[in-house]
């Protein structure tokens, strides 16, 4: 049994009763975007929230489908090459080696120390940026399926998580080999990688849902996000070290990518993430999920129309 | 008992022009004071009313044909019944497991083998891996594709692909079956065999809703019919009465008879 909430395109939203949004609303008032904001007001109901949550749970339960789809996607990309997805491992390995040696020279770093750091950083960055880039296309990439098959939409986001996790499992070998060469022993702290990865995936889920939804509506969003991610790579300590930054620390501490990278990278390098890092990731998760749930509650049913 | 109850269902589509699909342009337009050359922003979205006030009830055992010219809203209505489109207004009350079979080749992977495609397609249709494994042998047997099933789909002819799609699609047992045109099974030699399976498949479903232009198919399969014009239900009655009505309002188009299986 399915019921549908009402919305009316002609509702006039009383602009100004929230001072913060007043300016935005007045600038949008004469546009069709205003129509979407009207939806935000009428669509935000407990009933719709329950359906959004059910979609996220049902999507996860279709694990057989999205894991098969994810595997299929990986196979598809590399089916006719002999090494398969290990091509990715090799290209990452070459990049780590070349950039690691170059920047060790530029930044006057000890190679034995710096190369494992870069290898770990690139591996983790590959996962996070992959989640974001594929996440913005999560619904667009499955448009023909969405228009023909009923079912929870979130399964397409779980597929993105799964493919990126498989790629990560291939890339991690670059770090493992580097660590073996330079005899890095991370000790027991390496097990912090499990909660760390879980935290990244939980964040990857909201990113895929929220960005995927916006990307389905506004088709230039994937390109905008791609540029932002590229910029974030340079602003995040991956080829440089956090200690090298003196002054302007806000660039790092205010950078959500830094915290997400650090929570997986530091266990790889044998350090336990600090409580502050856990706290930062926790707040990113809460804020991200809050915004996502608001948007998913209101616009989930529209995705099938948009793709 | 399966049933489909639709009450005052409205579906409208926003049609975005290129600027409406761009976030950058949207933001630019709201930040700059004047709207230079951006006059169309006011009418950027055209809203197409695809379904208007659709109400009907189908009960257990109904075989319903959706009739209407191209763009009348048949496919949209099928998607609403499938739960893909949630209507902006109105209520959809469906009891029973729904299986939409709109495109027999949906989600087929050209690089994957025939067996992989049986698995994938079965999962799309809502079967579990275990159920598919149990049926895989029967499906494979029915397609008569033999060792080809171990080869990637790109090596198949169109007819072979259709056989595979047909065999997997008819392996499910839904309560409610939604069809956009008939299920095509490929070459003529295969047809006789396919028709027997199709009969059995149809008889198992509690409710069938079929959108079609083929009068022959409609008369063969359905007792009830719903005529849709411009997103509205114009007539809902027995097949004979509705077809007569359709011929009356659209005399030119009654000769259409596409071959179907």
TrEMBL record, chain A:
Entry GO terms, CC: plasma membrane
Pfam entry (one): ABC2_membrane
Location in the cell: Cell membrane
Residue span(s) of domain ABC-2 type transporter transmembrane: 66-267
One Gene Ontology MF term: ABC-type transporter activity
Positions of transmembrane segments: 86-106, 118-140, 161-184, 190-214, 221-240, 278-299
Membrane topology: Multi-pass membrane protein
Record-level GO BP terms: lipopolysaccharide transport; polysaccharide transport
Keywords, ordered alphabetically: Cell membrane, Membrane, Polysaccharide transport, Sugar transport, Transmembrane, Transmembrane helix, Transport
InterPro entries found in the cross-reference section: ABC2_TM
Keyword Membrane listed: yes
Keyword hit for Transmembrane helix: yes
Family assignment from sequence similarity: Belongs to the ABC-2 integral membrane protein family.
Name recorded for this polypeptide: ABC transporter permease
Species this protein is from: Thiospirillum jenense
UniProtKB/TrEMBL annotation, chain B:
Transport in keyword set: yes
CDD domains for this protein: ABC_KpsT_Wzt
Pfam family, one: ABC_tran
GO terms under cellular component: membrane
Ranges of residues in domain ABC transporter: 36-255
Keywords of the record: ATP-binding, Nucleotide-binding, Transport
SUPFAM superfamilies per UniProt: P-loop containing nucleoside triphosphate hydrolases
A Gene Ontology molecular function term of the record: ATP hydrolysis activity
Protein name: ABC transporter ATP-binding protein
């Amino acid at each position: 049994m399915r019921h549908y909430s009402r919305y009316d395109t002609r509702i006039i939203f009383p602009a100004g009763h929230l001072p913060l949004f007043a300016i935005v609303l007045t600038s949008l008032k004469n546009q069709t975007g205003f129509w979407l904001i009207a939806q935000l007001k009428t669509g935000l109901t407990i009933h719709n929230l329950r359906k959004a949550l059910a979609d996220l749970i049902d999507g996860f339960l279709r694990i057989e489908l999205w894991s098969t789809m994810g595997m299929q996607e990986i196979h598809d990309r590399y089916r006719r090459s002999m090494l398969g997805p290990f091509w990715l491992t090799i290209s990452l390995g070459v990049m780590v080696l070349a950039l690691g040696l170059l920047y060790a020279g530029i930044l006057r770093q000890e190679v034995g120390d710096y190369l494992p750091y870069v290898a770990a950083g690139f591996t983790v960055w590959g996962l996070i940026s992959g989640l974001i880039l594929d996440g913005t296309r999560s619904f667009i990439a499955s448009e023909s399926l969405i228009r023909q098959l009923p079912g929870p939409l979130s399964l397409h986001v779980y597929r993105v998580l799964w493919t990126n996790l498989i790629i990560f499992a291939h890339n991690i070998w670059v770090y493992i080999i580097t660590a073996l060469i330079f005899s890095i022993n991370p000790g027991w702290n390496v097990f912090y990688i499990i909660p760390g990865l879980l935290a990244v995936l939980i964040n990857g889920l909201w990113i895929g849902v929220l960005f995927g939804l916006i990307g389905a509506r506004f088709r230039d969003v994937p390109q905008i996000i791609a540029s932002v991610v590229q910029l974030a790579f340079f602003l995040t300590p991956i080829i440089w070290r956090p200690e090298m930054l003196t002054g302007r620390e806000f660039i790092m501490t205010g950078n959500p990518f830094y915290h997400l990278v650090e929570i997986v990278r530091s266990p790889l390098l044998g350090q336990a993430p600090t409580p502050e890092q856990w706290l930062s990731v926790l707040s990113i998760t809460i804020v991200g999920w809050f915004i996502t749930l608001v948007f998913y509650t209101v616009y989930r049913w529209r995705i099938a129309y948009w793709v | 008992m399966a049933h489909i109850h639709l009450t005052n269902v409205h579906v409208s589509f926003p049609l975005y022009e290129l600027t409406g699909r761009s976030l950058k342009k949207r933001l630019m337009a709201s930040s700059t004071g004047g709207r230079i050359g951006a006059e169309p922003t006011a009418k950027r979205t055209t809203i197409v009313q695809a379904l208007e006030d659709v109400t009907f009830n189908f009960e257990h055992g109904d075989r319903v044909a959706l009739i209407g010219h191209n763009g009348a809203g048949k496919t949209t209505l099928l998607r609403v019944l499938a739960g893909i489109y949630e209507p902006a207004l109105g209520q959809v009350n469906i009891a029973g497991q729904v299986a939409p079979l709109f495109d027999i080749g949906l989600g087929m992977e050209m690089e994957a083998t025939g067996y992989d495609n049986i698995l994938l397609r079965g999962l799309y249709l809502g079967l579990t891996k275990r159920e598919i494994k149990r049926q895989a042998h029967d499906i494979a047997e029915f397609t008569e594709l033999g060792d080809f099933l171990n080869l990637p789909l790109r090596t198949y002819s169109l007819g072979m692909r259709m056989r595979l799609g047909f065999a997997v699609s008819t392996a499910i047992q839904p309560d409610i079956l939604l069809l956009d045109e008939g299920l095509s099974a490929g070459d003529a030699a295969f047809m006789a065999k396919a028709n027997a399976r199709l009969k059995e498949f149809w008889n198992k479903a509690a409710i069938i809703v079929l959108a079609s232009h083929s009068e022959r198919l409609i008369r063969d399969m359905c007792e009830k019919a719903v005529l849709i014009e411009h997103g509205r239900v114009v007539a809902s009655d027995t097949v004979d009465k509705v077809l007569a009505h359709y011929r009356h309002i659209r005399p030119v188009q009654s000769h259409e008879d596409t071959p179907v299986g």
